[in-house]
Structures are given as C-alpha cells and as structure tokens.
Amino acid sequence: MTPIATTPPRDHALDTMRVVATLLVIVIHVSAKGFGLMGERNWWAVNAWESVARVAVPLFFMISGALLLTRAPTVAAIGRREWRILLPLAAWSLLYLLWFRHTGQRQDDWLALIVNGPVAGHLWYLYALAGVYVFLPVLVAFHQHVAPRTQLFCLLFWFIAASVVPLEIALTGRRVAGIDWAALHLYPGYMAVGALLYHRLPAVPRRLHLAFAWAAWALLALAIALATWWRSHTLAQANEAFYTYSSPLVLLASLAAFVALRALGATWAPPGSRRMRAVAWFAATSFGVYLIHVWVLFALETVGIDYRYVNPWFGIPLLALCAASGSAVLVRGMQAIPGVRAIVPR
Fold first, then answer.
1. Alpha carbons 262 and 285: distance in angstroms, whole number
2. Which residues contact 134 (CB under 8 A, 6 or more apart)?
3. DSSP assignment of 69-91
C-alpha cells in the first residue's frame, strides 16, 4: 500500500464532533456529584445523562487518530506535540493546586503531586495523551501500511483485550484465558479505529446506515444505564464498571457516535454557514475549555449552583451549557494574551 503523506484540509465535521465531545465531558463532570447518591429520587437523571455522555473521551482519541495517523511523525514533531500537552498540564496543575489551597486543602510537595498526578481528576487525559504521542510512529505505520482487513482483524482482538477482558475481571475477579493482552492498550486502539472509520467510511453514509448509527448510540446508552443500575443495585452502592472507557458498551457506543456526529457536522454545519463559524469559534477553545471548566464548576458550586439547582433532567445539560459558554469566553480572553495563550492552545 502507498503511504498517505498529505495533511488533510480542516474538517469542520470533526470540529462539530469535538464541540459535542467537549460538552459531553462537562455533562459527565456536572453529573458526577450525584452518582453516588443512589437513594435520591433524581439518581436516574444522573445515570441517564452519564450514560449518554460516556462516549466523550473515546471521541477525543478517535478524532486525534483521524487527524494524526495520515502524517509521518518525526522526533521533532512528537516533541512539539508533547510540549503542547506538558506545558498546559504543568500550568493547570499548579492553578488547581492553588485553588485547592484557597479552599483550605493544604498539600505538600507539589512537584511530586504533579509528576505522580493528576492533581485534578480530569487532567488524567493529558497524561494519557502524552503517553500515546510517543507511540505515534507505530500507530501511523499500522494505519498507513497495514491492509484494512488486517487492521480489522487486529482491532477485533484489541476489543477483546482492552474491553471484554477488563469487564470480565471487574465483574468476576478473574479471567478465563491466561493470555497476556498488555500490548493491546485501550487508548492507542481508539486512535487506530478512529482513523480507520474516518478514512474508510463516507462522511455521510446512506440514510439507513446513519439511522442505524444514531439508534445504536441511543440503545447502547440505554444499555449502559440499565447495566449500571443492575450492577449498583446488586452491590448496594453506585458502581462505574459499565461507565469506564474500556466497557464494551461504551466502546461500541463511541463507534456509533463517531459515525453519527461526523455526519451531523457535515450536514448541519456545512462550510461557509453561520453554524460552521460558530462551531469553529468554539472548537478553537475546546482544549482550553476542557482544562478550565472544572474550575468554573467549582466556582459555581461555591454559590450553590450544581446539578440540582433545577430538576436534574434539565439542570444537568443546562449547567453544562452554561459552564461551557463561560469557559469558552474565558479561554478566548486568555488566548488573546501573549504568553498566556500557550496554556490554552487552539
């Protein structure tokens, strides 16, 4: 096969997907406070929104795969990507530690906390991304030089190793086969499957196929919610086994969401439209929004605004939209300041 060497033009469908994924991450963090409170009458609202939103982080990895695995990475290029991750990671770790100190949570040896991190839960994604970037040449070679049929064969076993086996262990405490699956890690696989779907499927599939993708996402979200209720009810405490990004239900829902949201972006926000410009504006802030939105939620909580400020069925998405909007405005302002913009890159 001939290697793909060109850099693809900007795809606004992926921008749409990135915006939706960012909003869904905020939905997860808005809902998280109520997940452990199974006795509350609004627990099902929390569970439902969490289940729909669990595709968010897998979508981020899949978008990265779609964009990066057509390029031939050099050591210098990998270094630049790592710098774009590690500088914001260090800066925001310090900012969150300062916030925690301000709220009375005194912690020592900040350097060790950052190295061992994350100091704030959502920053784990940057640690994972920094690790995956080191292996970009391996992923690029897999995408460019391995036949699609062979890629599917490998990804089938990745699904077993990175998804089915962890769930088996979580539910039973053991595994049937003693094969060591460590080589087939979850997040690089998401990047590989994202690249495969992006470059081998049309942006807007046939109507029947697109309807199947939307229906599959909806049904799998329902299955995640029901399985989470069953597991939590069985253990008499809230349990996230079916929420994890390695959960087979979440993985399959992420594939369906990728196809559905790509088509949505290609049709709902076509190039040159006002919707496309709005999507592009927010997409340019999405990384910064991911970094800052937890602080915005903390600040809102100090004045009594959380997922219960109105009925959670409506309050969770509304608060997520408010936090996303406020975060985007803050990020835009930071991006206009020389030096500061480096910690909220576009």
1. 19
2. 78, 82
3. TTS---HHHHHHHHHHHHHHHHH
All residues at 6 or more sequence positions from 31 whose CB lies less than 8 Å from its CB, including other chains: 46, 49, 50, 53, 307, 312, 316
Residues 6+ apart with CB under 8 A from 233: none
DSSP 232-268: HHHHTS---TTTSTT-HHHHHHHHHHHHHHHHHHHHH
> pTM for the whole thing?
0.94
Give the separation between CA 67 and CA 51, rounded to whole angstroms.
27
Residue 19: both structure tokens together: 């915006």
| Tokens 């088996």 sit on residue | 168
Residue 221: count of CB within 10 angstroms of its CB:
23
| 161-201 pLDDT tens trace | 999 999 999 999 887 777 878 788 999 999 999 999 999 99
Q: What is the pLDDT of residues 16-72, one digit of tens each?
A: 999 999 999 999 999 999 999 988 889 999 999 999 999 999 999 999 999 999 988
